[in-house]
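[job 4471] stage=fold_predict status=RUNNING
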Amino acid sequence: MLKQRLSISQRQRLSPMQIQVIRMLGYSTVEMEEIINKELEANPALEESDGDTVSDISLDASSDTDDSEFGDDDGSAMADDIDIMEADSYYNDDNGAYSIKNNFDGQRDTMQSPVFSAEESFAENLFGQIDETSADEKTKQLARYLVSSLDENGYLTRSLANIADDLMFSMNVEVSEEQLSEALDIVRQLEPAGIGARNLQDCLLIQIGRKHSNPSTELATIILKKYFDQFTEKKYNYIKDKLSVTQNELEDAIAEITKLNPKPGSELNASKASDAASQIVPDFTVEQYNDNLYVSLNGFNYPKLSVSRAYREMLQELAASNHKDSRTQKAIDFTRQKIDQADTFIESIRQRNNTLIRTMIAIANKQRAFFLSGDDTQLVPMRLKDIAEISGYDASTISRVTNGKYVQTSYGVFPLRYLFSETIHTDSGQGVSSKKVMSVIRETVDGEDKHNPLTDDQIKERLNTEGYRIARRTVAKYREQMNIPAANKRTRKD
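[job 4471] inference complete, writing structure tokens
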């Protein structure tokens, strides 16, 4: 017999503003300009304010700001170098205006930022695919959040438990690991294949699983599942003996594996330098004046936004009306909805810009020597976790802020990810940046005998002699990153 039962339960959901801020963190300057223009067209309650548009937004770092949300209670997390100027926006509650203030006085010559080839938005491409799935809206929202947590290779390296904690503590949204697992299943179905993998092995298995089944792909699957370590170490004879296969069968299976993409995220992040129609500008500027650094957030074509005064007055008049029929009530609901959307959009931009600039200040403080000298050997070891600890944000937030963003300096334009590097320990116990080690490798290769070039093992031995604790595979990785060919391809025949 059917029975009706009433129950009450509490659930946390991502608010529209939280979702909007998360998305905006991943947008570049050009993408934000496009988003703002689209919103201006779609929402009649949102309009451009009168006045000139200024590209930089600023607030003195030593001024009164609430530092409690960024880490240490005493504000020390953001006060390492007070000569770094903090760019910030402000929100006027009285008129809903989103204003931008100039970071420099009129006497200074502000560097003109050049235009650079853009990259296809990694997150936006995946967001579009998620929207086309048949999942419920809550699962789609969580899938978008997971996409924002992917690294540059397209992997999800953080545990679902940590992500659930992140949502709870940073956004007060309670979700279970099961719900996140359902969302991750959606992400792992996206293109290119391998997105959302936990590691390289998982990535390759996802891709091989989508291939047409045949003896070679089936053998390749077994190798990846059971003999992955031996495969990476190229112990092919061991695998052949264990699986009792012929040399040709093994070679066909290995050929299937080598066709796979170990970094599926790189497909969506690949440079579009040849596409002149798609262009960006640097998202940040770090300028130097008398050994002082000034950090600003670029918003070259951002209009000043405000909520339409006419719409606010219309809402007041409609609400004050003594005769409210269904038509009038619909007009009230429509007007209030558009005003709320405009207010949310403006506040989302403020929060996005505030997060971006405070992250950039933390990076500039950490890499001060590099920004003053332009010498990449001056880069200190820096991880997403380090900037997260300085700024008080979560590492996933720092990942979204730095992904696909650029900073203009006096020495050129650099991707923010270029400023991050691994720590290599020396015999003295100190840690140096991987950029420093790469520079040493470059110098070693430049000074080698071109008729008898150094192998990766020999380069490793030389670096070990100089005090750098480094493995041969690390030498090979850095050599490939610098586009230096292997020893047998560097041999001079003359």
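[job 4471] summary: Confidence is low (pLDDT under 50) at residues 51-120, 270-278.
[job 4471] exit 0
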